[in-house]
Design brief:
The protein is 25% helix and 29% strand. It is built from 13 helices and 30 strands. It has a 17-stranded parallel beta sheet, sandwiched between helices. Strand 2, helix 7 and strand 3 form a beta-alpha-beta unit.
């Protein structure tokens, strides 16, 4: 009996008993630094890491360590570069010799400063493609007019499913990427207009064009699997037309910060199933904007940044759940915002600079589902504030930033759970009547007089915090945590938190 009990207490390492291919799949979700640390666990883990099908070489990290040992440009420095070059070849050939499929090959921070390595980059990529490479990531540090010319085998590859390029020249059309699912181009030079239609790139799901040049037209039509399109225009390009018409597209982000008003024409009317739309277009006119929104019946998330030509925003979409309006810091055109969205749950308004006249926000009686309200408006008055929140009976989260004209406010929303008031210097009194309030945060040198319902003081549920010296990291963390509950894009969460704080 004693021996049987001892056997029951034996601890078994279930993860180490898994097949090597499954362990590799688990490790692929971890950062490369954490993967390397697993080599010290046991001899089996050390051998498994040798066959780990992800190779990532960060030249910035390598050069930084190299400069600490040898003076830059010395013979020892050049020898170390040559040794590192051989190490990359050796790692790639090991997969060819063992006939192991290479899942990802990443070259990051590859600089134009060391031309002796440039001639070998083509060979590295070709070796990776011979091992049925699935993901290729090239984050290079070439500066215009210098670009790295992408080798032809990349266009001809049938195994590539993900391609992320930076500072590269693509001298062939994008239609050759027939097996790609994700295509991300940043600061790249293209050879002619971007035209993708019907049978071109039939497997493409995500397309990102960030500050690319060399084209004057973007035309995407009827790609069967395309789900997300992100377009960021560089300030010096001459793009004149963007047309996207695919029934499968659900997320579109368009950034066009050009000073010219009629520099670009945006047409996404045919995207009937669009759910997410982000617009950062200085030249977008009011009539075109409202015509665009009226043709998107399934739109759920709308984010408007820096649209200088909009004087009045009217939102009457039946399905929209999240709305953000952030005018440019020197924008004085926006006068009114009218919202008639019965399913609206989250509304964020950020005005970074003080205006001569406040922007009037009108919320219709049908907007009874609002749960989160974030305000950063220096000229909003007590009357406007009370009129705005009086119809929000289901409001749970209220964040007030830099509302300099607020003096005495009443917040009687019965479902309110979190109240954050930050940098409102003239605020003297706050009356809170919610029975569900459990977090009350006040940030700034001057603390207003709070009048809270008596039953809240009788319980330990209320958490009251007053910070005189604001810790913006702490503040941004709390706001970001709340925003992540309904915003999936981490970059967008960071933009909003920076604008608020």
């Amino acid at each position: 009996m004693r021996r049987a009990r001892k056997k029951k207490n034996i601890k078994v390492d279930r993860i180490s008993e898994l097949p090597e291919c499954i362990v590799h799949d688990i490790l692929s979700y971890l950062p490369i630094e954490d993967v390397v640390q697993t080599t010290i666990l046991s001899k089996r883990w050390y051998s498994m890491n040798k066959n780990y099908p992800v190779l990532c070489f960060d030249f910035d990290y390598f050069i930084k360590n190299l400069k600490e040992k040898f003076p830059e440009g010395s013979s020892d420095f050049r020898k170390a570069l040559k040794t590192h070059r051989k190490h990359v070849y050796k790692s790639l050939r090991r997969f060819s010799r063992k006939k192991v499929l290479l899942r990802a090959f990443c070259v990051r921070n590859f600089s134009v400063t060391y031309p002796e390595l440039h001639s070998h980059l083509d060979s590295w990529i070709t070796l990776g493609l011979e091992n049925c490479l699935q993901k290729l990531e090239l984050v290079l540090r070439f500066y215009p007019p210098s670009f790295y010319t992408l080798p032809l085998p990349v266009f001809a590859s049938k195994s590539l499913t993900s391609l992320e390029l930076s500072s590269c020249f693509l001298d062939q059309p994008l239609t050759l990427f027939t097996s790609l699912r994700n295509l991300n181009l940043s600061w790249c030079l293209l050879n002619g207009p971007i035209i993708l239609k019907d049978a071109d790139c039939p497997l493409l799901e995500n397309l990102t064009l960030d500050s690319c040049e060399g084209f004057n037209r973007v035309y995407i039509n009827n790609l069967p699997r395309l789900h997300t399109v992100d377009f960021y225009e560089a300030c010096y390009t001459s793009v004149v037309k963007v047309k996207i018409s695919s029934q499968s597209i659900q997320n579109v982000s368009i950034t066009a910060n050009s000073l010219a008003r009629d520099w670009v024409k945006i047409n996404i009317d045919a995207c009937d199933h669009l759910k997410f739309l982000l617009l950062r277009c200085e030249g977008l006119e009011q009539k075109k904007f409202h015509s665009l929104i009226s043709k998107l019946p399934l739109l759920e998330e709308l984010y408007i940044f820096n649209c200088q030509q909009l004087r009045a925003i009217k939102i009457s979409s039946p399905r929209i759940k999240t709305l953000l309006v952030c005018p440019r810091h020197n924008d004085t055109c926006l006068k009114t915002i009218e919202i008639a969205a019965p399913r609206l749950e989250n509304f964020i308004f950020i005005s970074e600079r003080e205006r001569e006249k406040p922007c009037v926000i009108k919320v219709a009686d049908c907007c009874v589902s609002l749960k989160t309200l974030v305000l950063r408006c220096e000229v909003i008055t007590d009357k406007m504030f009370h009129k705005l929140i009086s119809k929000c009976h289901l409001l749970e989260n209220l964040w007030i930033f830099a509302c300099n004209k607020l003096q005495r406010i009443e917040i009687l929303n019965p479902q309110l759970k979190r109240l954050h008031i930050v940098k409102c210097p003239k605020l003297q009194a706050v009356e809170v009547g919610s029975r569900n309030l459990w977090e009350l945060f006040c940030g700034g040198s001057k603390e207003p007089e709070f009048s809270v319902a008596d039953h809240l003081y009788k319980t330990d549920g209320l958490r009251f915090v007053h910070e005189v010296d604001l810790d913006f990291d702490f503040l941004s963390y709390g706001l970001a945590k709340m925003l992540r509950s309904f915003i999936r894009d981490e970059d967008l969460v960071e933009i909003i938190t920076d604008a608020c704080s």
